[in-house]
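REQUEST FORM: STRUCTURE PREDICTION
Request ID: SP-0412
Submitted by: Lab K.M.
Chain count: 1
Length (residues): 336
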Amino acid sequence: MLLQPDKLCNLYIYIKYKSKTIKFMKQNVITIIGSYNVGLFLKGNKFPIVGETIIANQFIESGGGKGSNQAVAAAKFGAKTRFIGRLGADKYGLDALRMYNDLNILIDLVKIDSTIHSGISVILIDEKGNNLISVAPGANYRLSEHDIDSSLKQLKDSMIVGFQLENDLKVVSYGLKKIHELGISTYLDPSPAQKLPDEIYQYIDIIKPNETEACTLTGIEVNDIESAEKAGRWFLKRGVKKVIVTLGQKGAVLTTPDSCVHFPAPKVKAIDTTGAGDIFSGAFFYSLQKGKSINTSIEFAVMAASLATTKMGVIESIPSIEEVNKFVNSNKTVEL
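STATUS: Completed
RESULT:
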């Protein structure tokens, strides 16, 4: 059974939920269609091998999911943001609604499914900040083509609509096509990586894979600026308008039909890289909404994502605007 966010019910709870009234200017909303997964973080000295038990040094529970993370990051930076997805009628779904309400994220198109659990992610982190992640998608895989169709009228106020791959690929492909047909810019973070049908690329204005995802999609081993540009050209040939390949500590590379620009990342002591790509996206969206150029927006996003790796968690690690601006000013990387 589907419920609206103002009435989250199951056998144990009935809570009246009131979302704040938010007025957005036409064509000025960042809309994210995607996933919510509560993140259960365990940090230890190393990853266990098969059959081994490792004692963790730290545990954190935090709202997550690539779509939700990107919406939360954009909203925390100050962007006018909408999230569209499905939640289970459980504690985690309720926690998500409270979080969105606190951040003034528009959730009129979020649906609650009382027949399945909210998405859950278990994240293992080693002492170097590397991570291993396992996800039980739950309600995320119930997002449907009907959900997309029923949202189209409201989505006309969006300047860009972002997607990821934690929902059914057929629904993501359908959503990209429908949004493209409305004349609204589309953005795909192709994570978790999987092969995509060639026909999907013509509906993508901006795609943002990391090195591993770019390799999975293109077959090109990506580990430096030159190979990132080569992968970028692969996407462009298939119809994508702009390609941003993120390279972790090496920053990001923007490839367009006319140019290729590298945005180096500042040196930081990373303790947790989980969610850095999502914070990159949220910061990028925020900067675009403020009317900044794509180059300035990528530089801002690189700085935000780098800062985020110096803290544990995802939402907890989103830096403030003041922190990012200070970082940008002290680490100028390109002429903008």
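NOTES: The CA atoms of residues 112 and 274 lie 26 Å apart.
Reviewed by: T.R.
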